[in-house]
Every structure is written in C-alpha cells, then in structure tokens.
Amino acid sequence: MGLLDKLKNALFEVEYVEVEEPPKKEKKVKEKAEKPIAKKIVLPGKREDKIEELQEEELRDEDFEIRPKEEVKEQPHEEFKFMDDEDFKIEDDYVPEEPEILQVLDESEEVLNEKKEEMKQVITEAQLNEIKNLVRSDEIFMNEPMKKHTTMRIGGPAEVFLKPRAVEIEKLLDYLAKEQIKTFILGNGSDLLVTDEGLSGVVVSTRSMNSINVNEGTGVVTADAGVSLGKIANAAKNASLAGFEFAAGIPGSLGGGVFMNAGAYGGEMKHVVKSVKYFDPENGVQTVSGDEADFGYRHSIFSENPSFVILSAEIQLERGNFEEIDALQKDLMNRRIEKQPLEYASAGSTFKRPEGYFAGKLIQDAGLMGYHVGDAEVSTKHAGFCINKGNATYADMKALIDHVIETVKADSGVTLTPEVRIIGE
After folding, report:
1. Of 418, 365, 263, which is closest to residue 49 (Cα–Cα)?
2. What is the CA radius of gyration of the chain?
3. CA-CA distance, 200 to 202, in Å (whole number)?
C-alpha cells in the first residue's frame, strides 16, 4: 500500500464526536444583608402619678427646686456602614439608561436656589429709600446678626433691621403694611429662637420706644412697648406702687410681656394691664382694654393676631409700702438667681407648663439634665431651661428641644409644648 493510500484510510477512519459545552456561569449581584441604621430606644414604663392640681399662686415652675442629678450619658448607636462599589458585581455589557427624572431634579434645584436668593433680599431699592425717609439713618442696619438681639444669642442676619423711635413707628408700620413688606416686631428677644439663615424682610426693634410715665395719684404706669419689665418694676417701686413685683426679673419688654401674658411667682400681666394701644394694618391705631385682650396662659389677642403691633400699655397698680415692695422684689430675684441658670444665654423657660405637671420635673425624671447637642444643653441647675453654653447654633438648639419632647413623651406620656417662639422656619 502506497503512502497516499495509507493517508486516505487514516483520514476517513477519524470519528467526529460532538462535545457538549459546559454551562455558562451567570453573573450575579452579590447580596448583602441590610443593617439597621439605628435602634429605637423606648424608655420603659409610663408615669401614672399625676401631680395634684394646685393654685397657680402656690406653686409654679419657677418655685420648683430641682435637685442635682448625675450627668446623662448619651446612648451609643450601632455604627452604620454604607455599601461600597466593591460589594457589587455589574454585568460587563450593562449600560444604564439616562433617567429623565434627573433633569427634573436639576430644574427643581435651580428653582429652589432662585427662591433662596429671593428670600435673601425681598426689599427693593425704592422701598429701602422710602424707609430711609421715615426713620433716621442711624436707626437702619443691613444684614444685622439676630444673635446680637436675642437672649439665646442665636440667629442669622436680618435683611433690614430698624430701631425706630415712638414718633416714627406709626408711619413706618403703615408704609410696611401698604407695601406688604414682610415684617417682624422684636422686643427684648427673650423668648425667641431664630434660624441660622436669619430673617428676610424687615425686623422692627422696639428698643428705642422707651418712654415711661408714672402717675402716683392714680397708680397708672404708661409705658412704650420697648420699655423693659424690670425698668417698669423699679419705677413702680420708687413711686411706692405695688403689684408689679412679679415681673421685676422677667427678661422681656412690655410689648413682649403683653403679647404672651408673661408671668412668674403667682403674678401675670393680665392682673395689671388696664389698656393696650396697638397698630392694626387694616384699621390703624386701636386701643383695647385689659378685659378685652383675651389673656390666658401664655396667650393674648395679640398672639392670636401677630399682625397687631403693640405700641404702648397702661399698667394699673395700687399704693403700697416702699420697703415691703423692695423686699419682695429682692426676694424674688434671689430665688431666680438661686434656681435658674442666669449665667448662661437662654430664652427663659423653654417649655410651657403642662396641666397638672411641671415641665422641669418631667425633664429631670426622664434623665435629661446635662444632655446636650453641641453647645445647646439642658441645664443641670433647672431642667426647664435649655441653655447656650457658648456657640450653639439654631440646629443644635432645635435638635435638643425635639429630643427633650420625644424623650419626655416616651418616659411619662406627657407632650411638652415649647414656650420659646421659633422664627424663620
């Protein structure tokens, strides 16, 4: 057999066998178990012992003595770790589609930024020039930090800050109302928490409205809205007029005191206010009697109608003995110094007194004395005060107040209501 024949035979004897390919492995996305972001801590038990109703004159938040308690330690939170890119395997041929929603979100962000810019400046140049014709140039401040004008020492800039005198206030308010310019009336700033972003529009401070007149014969003290309650108390004492001793240590103005029916140690503004003169944007200057002012616990016709601007008020007092009035004022002031954290910036009592309870006692029982967010802290001297220990921001203080409300609710079932007014949200 020749070589050629041998090659042919070998070629045709080859048997072809179809080999089955092994199955392809599917690429899968690696699964990763979710971890909880945070654990909800529920404080055990609900407070069932309700404090008996007592007359307001007998016992108030300011009279309540709070015993020192160990500093509260914050509960550690379980660390949450975000998934990294390495935790996922992506198909090589995967090409993501361009989502249309991204364009919508971008447009919304632009609109939001535009609105923020508008809020930063809502006063036109023409309006500002007209305001300059109504008040003196040394009474106008641009981008004035509100932290300089609140007892909490917190707050961003006011777009336009004015300090008009009493003779200028009515025309100014009338112009602002007609132009529909956003306006906020500021007294002593003792019951306010202003946002870090500040306030757009106009802030009108009443601090330059500070005249006071005492009629010893009738016992009537007439004062502008910007006069401090302490100044009125001292003027009344010097004239041997009794009935205003309770307000001697309240860090507020007459306007603010009337607005919220301020009170302490058994006395309230509703007990002494004879009449109030105020500005109504729709009807101009009006006068209402004390009986018509709808006074209640931290409430008045003015808190119900914030557009009403208190200009002045008459306080009706009674003849008394100078030494007795002086002794009572000093006693109340000493009690404040002893029980309240006056050495720190605060807005006074942070929460209203819930019916049948004491805010400070509920907060202490919830273990919150000394709890803090940044430099915002629940006072270790009186749990009813949230204080600024230095450089607290609005975000710090708001987070602290919210935490106190949530924790007290879980601990006692009682919902606290802030007494401090939050401005700028």
Report:
1. 365
2. 34
3. 7
* Ramachandran sector of residue 313 (left: φ over 0; alpha: ψ -120 to 50; beta: rest): beta
| Residue from 190, 312, 349, 412 carrying the catalytic annotation | 349
Active site residue 349: yes
Between the alpha carbon of residue 281 and those of residues 23, 174, 179, 275, 285, the distances in Å are 82, 7, 11, 19, 8
Please tell me the predicted confidence (pLDDT) of residue 33: 43
Q: Which of 153, 207, 298, 353 is catalytic?
A: 298
Q: Are 318 and 325 in contact (CB under 8 A)?
A: no
The model's pTM: 0.70
Write out residues in the chain with pLDDT < 50, as ranges.
3-4, 7-8, 11-19, 21, 24-109, 111-120
User: Long-range contacts for 88-96 (Cβ within 8 Å, ≥24 apart)?
Assistant: 88/29, 88/30, 89/27, 89/28, 89/29, 89/30, 90/29, 91/27, 92/27
Q: Decide if 377 contacts 389 (C-beta within 8 A).
A: yes
Query: What Cα–Cα distance (Å) separates residue 179 from each residue in 124, 161, 182, 204, 309?
Result: 11, 17, 9, 15, 16
Question: In whole angstroms, what is the distance from residue 6 CA to residue 340 CA?
Answer: 116
pLDDT attached to residue 169 = 96
Residue 292 falls in the annotated catalytic set: no
Is 108 designated active site? no
